[in-house]
Amino acid sequence: MTMAVLICADPTILCPALEDLQAVRQLAFDFLQRPIHVHIGEMNTAKANTDVTQHVVLLDRPYDKDQKLDEMLLEHLGEDELAIVFVSTKKSVEEIARLLMRHSYGVTEIHGDKDQRERDLALRSFTNKEKRVMIATDVASRGLDIKGVKLVINYDAANTPEDYVHRIGRTGRAGEKGISYTFLVRDDPTDVKKAKAILDVMQTADQAIPEELRLLVGVKASKGGGKGGKAHKGGGKNGGKSGKGSFKGKGGGNHARSGPPPGPLAGVAPMQGGLMGGYGGRNGNYYR
After folding, report:
1. Residue 248: exposed, middle, or buried by beta-carbon count in 10 A (0-12, 13-18, 19+)?
2. 3 state SS of 167
3. What does the alpha-carbon distance between residue 233 and residue 269 come to, in Å, rounded to a whole number?
4. Which has the closest alpha carbon to 149: 126, 166, 130, 165?
5. CA 235, CA 87: separation in Å to the nearest integer?
6. Could you say which of 106, 121, 139, 262 has the lowest number of CB atoms within 10 Å?
7. 102-121 b/e with 16+ CB inside 10 Å = b?
8. Left if phi > 0, otherwise alpha if psi is -120 to 50, otherwise beta: which for 206?
């Protein structure tokens, strides 16, 4: 008996099956005696768009991500621009969306538990710029071609180089320039492993490689090769600059999603316009 298994992921359809594609492929290869893999499209999927300027943010603690997220949005998100924040789980999508909404960000969500109607509504509010920040899992990393996405933030680093490339590829489209930031925790072994893959992608796209990132993964700079760069540090800096297109409004709030110790952290100055009340509140700057 001959069996054929067709695994098809249409990149134009926002489909939760994309998250399970690798597992389904492995099952097919486990059960078939003579499997044949037919690939349609470019094989080198880990080659990033050179119109996207890639940055890595090295953090001391996981709960520093919330403060750094706010800094990035304030600094880089212009008045008529969009941002996508990628996280690893559906639960994180909902937690970060609630956190940002409490501080007057216009936020929409996409993950695998949303039905098609909910996704269509979320995408519509994002594309018409009613909501200018989308929080998403990898289900949104492929097939989205939305004009005006200036910024991609990997709050949680992607699991594979291919996922990383697809995520940051949501910006810098159609000849436009884009920016991506990826948060990595220095002492997290999983993040250190991901850092090596990200460094490789950055090198192939001729990006500036921060020396601190090289040291983290134990890679020395080759003589005459690759541009140098400076890593963005977290956990010990003042809050971000007031961003382009910030609006005046009510601020405040006293919430830290990931549970830092009570009171100000040692070595961390109060934020000006910060996301968490423990760092001084938003002080009147917010995005709609």
Report:
1. exposed
2. helix
3. 14
4. 126
5. 19
6. 262
7. bbbbbbbbbbbebeeeebee
8. left
How many residues are present in the chain? 288
Domain boundaries, the chain: 1-41, 52-286
pLDDT for the residue numbered 91: 94
In angstroms, the CA 282 to CA 265 distance is 17
Mean pLDDT of the 161-184 span: 94
CA distance linking residue 160 with residue 232, whole number of Å:
22
Measured N-to-C along each axis, helices 65-76 and 90-102 cross at an angle, to the nearest 10 degrees, of 60
- The contacts of residue 160 (CB under 8 Å, 6+ apart) are 197
The per-residue pLDDT for range 80-105, each reduced to its tens digit, is: 899 999 999 999 999 999 989 887 88
Distance CA 65, CA 50 (A): 26
According to CATH, the superfamily of the domain at 52-286 is P-loop containing nucleotide triphosphate hydrolases (3.40.50.300)
Residue type, 180: S
Q: Find, among 58, 198, 228, 182, the residue nearest to 220 by Cα.
A: 228
Give one DSSP letter per residue of 81-110, joined into a string: -EEEEE-SSHHHHHHHHHHHHHTT--EEEE
Across 230-281, the runs of DSSP E, i.e. the strands, are 232-233, 247-248
Neighbours of 8 (CB within 10 A): 7
List 232's β-bridge partners, or say none: 57
Question: How far apart are the C-alpha atoms of 230 and 212, rounded to whole Å?
Answer: 7
SS3 178: strand
- The per-residue pLDDT for range 184-226, each reduced to its tens digit, is 999 999 999 999 999 999 999 999 999 999 999 987 665 544 4
The DSSP 8-state label assigned to residue 284 in this structure reads: T
Q: For the chain, how big is the Rg over CA atoms in Å?
A: 20
What letter would DSSP give residue 260?
A: P
